[in-house]
Amino acid sequence: MPKCWSLSTTIRNPERNVPFLRVLQEFEGEVFTEEIQAAFFKRLIQTKNYKPMGLPSDITTKFEEPEEFTDEELEQILGLVHYENSQYDNQEQIYAFRGRTAVGNLNKMGMALAREAIGTVTITPLGREILSGSPNYENIFLRYCLKWQLPNPAESGYKGFNINPFIATLHVINKVNELWSNEGYKPVGVNKEEFALFIPILTHYNDIEKTTENIISFRKTVRSLNANDARVFIDNYFREIVIKVFELDKDDEYNITKKINNLYDYGDSAIRYFRQTNLLYYRGAGRYIDLSPTRAVEIQKILNTYDGSAKHFENIHNYLEYMADINQPVLPWEDLESLEKVYNNLLDTAINLQNLIEQNYKGQSLHKFSLVRAKYKSPNEFNTEINQLRTIIKILNTDYMILQERNLSNMPNYIQELNTLANRRRTVSGQDPLNLEYYIAQTLIALDDALEIMPNYSVADDNMPTFTASGDKPDIECYYDDFNMISEVTLLKGRNQWYAEGQPVMRHLRDFEDKNLDKDNYCLFIAPIIHRDTLNTFWMGIKLGYEGKKQKIIPLAINQYVTILQKVIELNNNCNLRIKQNNIKDLLDKLHNESEKHMDSTKWIQTFDNIIENWSNQISIN
Q1: Are residues 344 and 271 in the same domain?
Q2: What value does the mean pLDDT take over residues 121-126?
């Protein structure tokens, strides 16, 4: 019997739902029997969307190749992996169990119907929108989080639960902020430790008030202690909670540790999903989760409309139909009065942000918008203006970030993060590709006096990324006075780097060039290492051209890019020389022009380290 709730930890990163769903689509029309469940799990391995643990290095290396495993290779992998499960006595049954686990979140979110008891595997209209390539993830995750509840007819074992976890979380954070404010402090939401400790074990909406009080009491105690004593208190508190909630023996160290780790995992997974709604955002350098101020009207309507309890459904069919309906539930702010409040809140936010930039960086504003309050008469008019204001706020947030980053104070931290990503043997979480895009974007922002650095990843209201850039756009677009540039980044190292990046990068650059004909255009490609197949694909575009025109693509290993960043810091700190955009163009030209001296692509990139060193020395001399 579950004692807490959790969103998927099998697919902890929400973006991984898509490849899992795409594999499941292959089985559409089949009854989801044990045989099909096992086949689904095997296909996840064969398509390299699931990597078993404990494989030898020669097999794990093949996971970096673009091609699927052959049937023979799959059998070899399965022969090397032995799963244990106390409920089943043969591997096929265990594969089926793992297939059911892997599909669980797709069922839970209403993307698919894959349950033996209800008929054949079906990809729902919601699932088809997600597979379409251009889904509105914010809308999808918002409506999912507003609907998912425990108990529900599709998930067994939740007797005694009565909760919508997302709505209950909004209530808890709102009440914590109220109580914390009453104590005389600035409201900050809840920190990640508080979230992991108290939110997943909240199983009944009637306990929202008590949970809120427990968080405040816990926080006050932690803040009253020095750092070492606070750590001991937190560890002991977690220990006491899991012993009580999960009814463990106080000497059962193995299960106590396991359950504590589970709570951290459940909290982390819930935060990832809940942030996709854009109603929650990070603050305090990502340490706290709080209610988004630009969504205050929407959040208040939710709090006024829903108390966090679960709805009643007559049967599983009604529930699954409800979950799969992308238009359900009706959002409580979709009326003229509420839309006007949303519009006014966003307009005030944009005005205040624009004034803040002008106040702190007089005359340095990168954009200036005419922000005038207007009257609208229809929901469509309001929604058009609301979407426009959200775009303006994103631009202004990026501008503010650019101006803040130019003092280079955060650059050493970004360099450390990039080095960690470059040297990691395997991704710790599905967030690593998104983190790479973020840190490259931040360093490009800090690098020089660019007109605009525009990452194409989706961002929440905290200006932190939620999804990587879509496949039809460059990862990052950079605009300067005399040139423009795109940056494409990847953590792939094997031949799958060439498969995923070769042609798409050249296509993105050509599309970018066609839109910006008045200036030189470059592509800065950054990866842990540059695979020879990727390099030689770019070499063709550099030497012979892509769609009739030669391209300026600069492939750099992350460590080479980091060297450039370190040179920028050294020039600033030691020589009082701040790199400008013309210096960056000079470096790009030196790296690209060197290609004209070589017929061998590998000889070309071997010159990069010396070119970067000489570029830096020349600036310091001049």
Answers
A1: no
A2: 92
